[in-house]
DNA sequence: CAGTATCCCAAGCGATACTG
DNA sequence: CAGTATCGCTTGGGATACTG
């Protein structure tokens, strides 16, 4: 089915996916975030673990700080000299579902036959963590469940009959 | 806290996030996927709507096909000549949570004051769709809930005390 | 309409060297 | 240890032109 031109009205710039992609779609960004979620906090540790050029890492961290995803802080361990660390902000933690959804996809479709390299569990009870879609009325959304996209308050586009995502 | 060197054992190559990032982290990829989810299926429509160079789009679609995310099919509308279309495979639909999680982040943190540009609803009941984290025993995972990462069957790294993601 | 081929050019990665 | 500055050099995007 040929989509009507209204789609043209949906500028990439006012799309939440596009805006998020602008941030996390940069090279290295997702891996930097992965390491931050995993508790790596120091510049040199990130640089070494990722084997990323230091100037690139510097730019990426700056972008994360500017986006409010990461906070740079000075701290001092007792008896040691001052150091700096990069720590996710609450906004940063809101990216966790993105990473976990990516991990779920990779585990399912891109993994060696022996199985997933990493298991993530709920620290409280040890249960495996899943990413689930649901609607506000509590219905589970299965992979093939139909979704509809409609213009929201900040929209610059008109409605179409198309589905799935926006 | 200084992470111990075991982290070095976690090659990026055997990380599900890294592998998924290799696919969807390429420039344009996320926007191509967004349009595919939204029902855009024809080469020229994608090229025009995204304002992407045609050769780049060609490469991206090829990568998606090779990854098994998209299937290229010939079809013919009655009375029309044959056309081709790109359609998400079931594996492709498994990327929907990634896109929706990105959208949720963008809606919350990167949106203009007037609100989100697009609303996604459960087609059955009209309820707004949310991305939720939960553990296998049904506990909700809030943004700040602690998670633990441990080596899985396909791991090439040793355990650490670190948390959150793998 | 649906691509592929070719070219040019800039962005930006990586390496290295340098400062607090 | 934690970065910034400089500098090639390559990758790869964009425009254009060309085929089924």
Q: How would you portray this structure in words?
A:
2 copies of one chain form a homodimer. By secondary structure, chain A is an alpha+beta fold. In chain A, 34% of the residues lie in helices and 20% in strands. Chain A has 6 helices and 6 strands. Chain A has helices at residues 16-24, 29-37, 43-50, 54-66, 90-93, 96-109, and strands at 70-76, 82-88, 118-122, 129-135, 140-141, 147-151. The first copy, chain A, has a two-stranded antiparallel sheet with strand order 1-2. A two-stranded antiparallel ribbon of chain A has the order 4-5. In chain A, strand 4 (129-135) and strand 5 (140-141) form a beta hairpin. The longest helix of chain A has 14 residues, at 96-109. The radius of gyration of chain A is 20 Å and the shape is globular. The two termini of chain A are 18 Å apart. Mean pLDDT of chain A is 87; it is low at 1-10. The interface between A and B is large, with 102 and 102 residues. The first copy, chain A, binds a DNA duplex (20 and 20 nucleotides) through residues 27-28, 42-44, 47, 52-59, 81, 83-84.
Spatial gap, N to C terminus of chain A: 18 Å
Average of the residue pLDDT scores of chain A: 87
Uncertain segments of chain A are: 1-10
Strand order across the largest sheet of chain A: 1-2
Helical fraction of chain A equals 25-40%
Report the count of strand segments of chain A: 6
Query: If you compute it from the alpha carbons, what radius of gyration of chain A comes out, rounded to the nearest whole angstrom?
Result: 20 Å
Structural class of chain A: alpha+beta
What's the SSE pattern of chain A?
A: HHHHEEHHEEEE
Number of helices of chain A: 6
Strand content of chain A: 15-25%
**Overall shape of chain A:** globular
Question: Greatest chain-chain interface?
Answer: A-B, 102 and 102 residues
Assembly level? homodimer
Major sheet details of chain A: 2 strands, antiparallel
């Amino acid at each position: 089915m040929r989509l009507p031109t209204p789609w043209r009205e949906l500028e990439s710039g006012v799309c939440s996916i596009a805006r998020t992609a602008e941030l996390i779609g940069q090279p290295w960004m997702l891996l930097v975030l992965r390491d931050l979620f995993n508790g790596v906090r120091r510049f040199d540790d990130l640089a070494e673990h990722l084997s990323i050029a230091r100037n690139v890492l510097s730019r990426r961290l700056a972008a994360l700080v500017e986006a409010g995803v990461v906070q740079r802080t000075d701290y001092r361990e007792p008896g040691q000299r001052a150091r700096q660390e990069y720590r996710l902000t609450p906004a940063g933690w809101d990216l966790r579902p993105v990473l976990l959804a990516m991990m779920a996809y990779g585990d399912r479709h891109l993994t060696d036959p022996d199985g997933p390299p990493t298991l993530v569990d709920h620290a409280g009870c040890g249960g495996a963590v899943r990413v689930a879609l649901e609607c506000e009325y509590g219905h589970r959304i299965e992979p093939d469940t139909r979704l509809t996209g409609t213009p929201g308050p900040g929209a610059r586009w008109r409605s179409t009959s198309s589905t799935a995502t926006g």
